[in-house]
Structures are given as structure tokens and as C-alpha cells.
Design brief:
about 90 residues; alpha+beta; GMP Synthetase, Chain A, domain 3; three-stranded mixed beta sheet; 3 helices
């Protein structure tokens, strides 16, 4: 898993999202994670194929909530603040 600059392990929070999302979906090659910053907080945007969106969200949003929890725990461990946005 390398980012645009070819640097693997550039961001551990992003790596967690990519690994888990790719494991959940039917089309792992369509998983995209973009990173930006908003008000001093890292914002990760997760995009997948439309047919895989239900797998990312889960029943009553449980999978999405679990992903967001993983993001906050990983970010806290590395001393940053982060949030996950799921885009369709």
C-alpha cells in the first residue's frame, strides 16, 4: 500500500482505513482514500464502488461506526485528530 508519492506507511491512520475497507468490499481496487486537513484535523475521505457502499455502511451503520472508531483510536495513538467521511 503506497500513497501517491510511493511512500508506504506514510500515514498509519490512512493505512488502517485502506486495509479494512479493501477487506470488506467485493472490488478492492475501487477503494480510494483521500487525505486532507480541516481545522487542524486530518480528514480521510473513503470512496468505493457504488455496489460496495452497503458493505462499508453495514446494517444500521454499524460497520461505518466501527470504521470511524478505528480511525479515532489509531489517530489518538499517533497523537493526531482524525475523522472519516464516507463518500458515494
Amino acid at each position: 500500500m503506497a500513497d501517491e508519492s510511493g511512500n508506504a506507511k506514510a500515514n498509519p491512520v490512512r493505512a488502517v482505513v485502506e486495509v479494512v475497507a479493501r477487506a470488506l468490499v467485493d472490488k478492492p481496487d475501487s477503494v480510494e482514500v483521500r487525505e486532507s486537513s480541516r481545522r487542524g484535523m486530518m480528514v480521510l475521505e473513503l470512496k468505493t464502488a457504488p455496489s460496495d457502499m452497503g458493505k462499508i455502511i453495514g446494517r444500521q451503520g454499524r460497520t461505518a461506526a466501527a470504521l470511524r472508531t478505528l480511525v479515532s483510536v489509531t489517530a489518538e495513538k499517533h497523537g493526531v485528530r482524525a475523522q472519516l467521511d464516507i463518500r458515494d
